[in-house]
Design goal:
The protein is mainly beta. Helices cover 13% and strands 43% of the residues. It has 2 domains: 2-123 and 266-279, Diaminopimelate Epimerase, Chain A, domain 1 (Roll); 131-257, Diaminopimelate Epimerase, Chain A, domain 1 (Roll). The strands form 2 sheets. Strands 5, 6, 7, 8, 9, 10, 11, 12, 13, 14, 15, 16 and 17 form a 13-stranded mixed beta sheet that branches. Strands 4-3-2-1-18 form a 5-stranded mixed beta sheet, with helices on both faces. The protein is globular. 46% of the residues are buried. The active site is at residues 81, 220. Pfam families: DAP_epimerase (PF01678). Its EC number is 5.1.1.7.
Length: 283
């Protein structure tokens, strides 16, 4: 089985070319591929399949040729992945499967249609505008932290750390607790503090994230969008640009009146073949 490995600010993925949807992709195979000691290692799997050939993408086949079939590292589905979409588009362009000339490239996802622009090393994707909802809480290491529920096509809980709690000191080796009545399908939890001013940005935020199905990751694109929306709200802004620093680097989020653009580097680092039968014997 052929694969490509790529990442966006350290949020890494195994890409599987499957244009006609013939690959028997199972939760067990996804988890084996993402295993960092016995597999290739990744935060998730991106199957590259034509929208018309996948039941979750067929409804958008008239608007986008390609569907991003995204799976979390534990083999569960996710509706959307911002960094995954940027790496997915990098793959399409670098392999010649798509040529975005002059206009944005449409990609079908479980959260709907996204558009992408490629400018050198930077890939930007336009997603839905984050929707902020009521507050909720996360419990981590004995701390109860208030947060804001945000929908970016997938669920998020953004928690601003209080004074005296260091972002770098948080123990994210275990999952934060959350209210299952608010997030029945689980939630990505972001922890943030304010950063120093950055030229060209209305706000600057530092973030760490625990992603459902993948544990702590070096970056989360939809999480950065959720964080940007909260940061702008806290300065009484509905639109603007926020620089978001994650452990894997920096992404830039621009919230407009009706959408949200996520921009940053996306690179492919390796390609090869893997034996699914060998993966099945990894334990």
């Amino acid at each position: 089985m052929e694969f490509t490995k790529g990442h966006g600010t350290g949020n890494d993925f195994v890409l599987l070319p499957d244009p006609d949807g013939q690959l028997d992709l199972t939760p067990e195979l996804v988890a084996a591929l993402c295993d960092r000691r016995r597999g290739i290692g990744a935060d998730g799997v991106l199957r590259v399949v034509r929208a018309a050939k996948h039941p979750d993408g067929a409804g958008l086949a008239g608007e986008a040729e390609w569907f991003m079939d995204y799976w979390n590292a534990d083999g569960s589905f996710a509706e959307m992945c911002g960094n995954g979409a940027r790496v997915f588009v990098r793959y399409l362009v670098d392999t010649g499967l798509a040529t975005p000339v002059g206009t944005a490239l449409p990609v079908a996802t479980r959260a709907g249609l996204v558009r992408a622009l490629v400018d050198g090393d930077t890939v930007s994707v336009e997603m839905r505008r984050p929707q902020l909802y009521d507050g909720s809480t996360a419990v981590l290491g004995g701390l109860t932290l208030p947060g804001t529920a945000v929908d970016v096509g997938n669920p998020h809980l953004v928690c601003v750390l209080p004074a005296g709690v260091e972002l770098s000191a948080l123990d994210l080796t275990t999952a934060p607790e959350f209210d299952p009545a608010v997030f029945p399908s689980g939630v990505n939890v972001e922890f943030i503090v304010a950063g120093e001013p950055v030229d060209g940005a209305d706000e600057h935020t530092l973030m760490r994230v625990y992603e459902r199905g993948s544990a702590e990751t070096l970056s989360c694109g939809t999480g950065a969008c959720a964080v940007a929306a909260v940061a702008l709200r806290d300065i009484a802004r509905e639109t603007g640009t926020v620089a978001v620093d994650v452990p894997g680097g920096r992404v830039t989020v621009t919230v407009t009146e009706d959408s949200c653009w996520l921009s940053g580097p996306a690179v492919l680092v390796a390609a090869g073949a893997v034996d699914p039968a060998a993966l099945s014997k990894r334990r």
